[in-house]
Amino acid sequence: MPPEQLLLASLLQSFYGILSDLPACQLRSRLHGAQCSGPCKNQCAAKMISMKHVLLATAAAIALATSNSMLPAAAQPMSQVDTVTTALNSIPDIIFYKDAQGIYRGGNTAWAALLGKPLDQLIGKTDLDLFPEEMAKSFQAFDKAMLAGGKPTRNNEWLVYPNGKKVYFETLKTPWIGKNGQVLGVLGISRQIKP
Predict the structure, then answer these.
(1) What is the pLDDT of residue 57?
(2) Which of 50, 54, 73, 58 is nearest to 5 (CA)?
(3) Sign of the CA dihedral with 77 first, then 82, 84, and 89 last
(4) Range 80-194 has CATH code 3.30.450.20
(5) What is the SS3 assignment for 100?
(6) Which residues of the chain have pLDDT under 70?
(7) Rounded Cα gap, residues 134 and 34, in angstroms
């Protein structure tokens, strides 16, 4: 259940709890627009103030729940994964990352376009699965040297798109570092420098 609906359900439950606790004289007097004049007058007034707050909170929750669903997609909040994914896919440079064994774990749509396949068909593959052998071994050698040195490296290389278009790229490779400081693998960014 979405958070807005959980909040709304909780508020409504509180509202019904307050209503069921009101003495009958208070309910009657509210229906007829009169003040409670019985021995429970102070108790009734306190419960009505509490009910008023719950009603206001319920109205606010309903407004949030309904207005959020009517927002344009761009204005609705995204998860962190969705935010990072859309940001990576907005970058025209090729971005990829692979683990320490050289297995691709992700990339952006520019990377998928270079290889001419959907992203889900690239994840779990190695350079040898995706590129001609000589090129793949070159990529692996660059990765190994960069990881051994522990510092970012740059190299220039010709890459060929599936349509045969040959493009000259500068590729930056850097260690992919996990949140605990351990090296997870290689992060690469390739930028076209010559058509």
Answers:
(1) 44
(2) 58
(3) negative
(4) yes
(5) coil
(6) 1-76, 195
(7) 91
The residue ranges of every structural domain in the chain are 3-75, 80-194
Any idea what DSSP says for residue 163? Answer: T
Contact between 147 and 132 under an 8 Å Cβ cutoff? The reply is no
Residue 72 backbone zone (phi > 0: left; psi -120 to 50: alpha; other: beta): beta
| Cβ–Cβ under 8 Å, residues 142 and 173 | yes
Question: What would the pLDDT profile of 54-106 be if each residue is shown by its tens digit?
Answer: 444 444 444 444 444 555 655 667 778 788 888 888 889 999 999 999 999 99
Containing 170, the helix (H) or strand (E) segment is strand 166-177
**Contact residues for 187 (Cβ-Cβ < 8 A; gap 6+):** 95, 96, 97, 173, 174, 175, 176
| Those residues with Cβ within 8 angstroms of residue 167's Cβ, 6 or more apart along the chain or in another chain | 158, 159, 160, 161, 192, 194, 195
Chain-centroid distance, C-alpha 36: 53
**What Cα–Cα distance (Å) separates residue 48 from each residue in 25, 38, 41, 119, 181?**
12, 15, 11, 58, 57
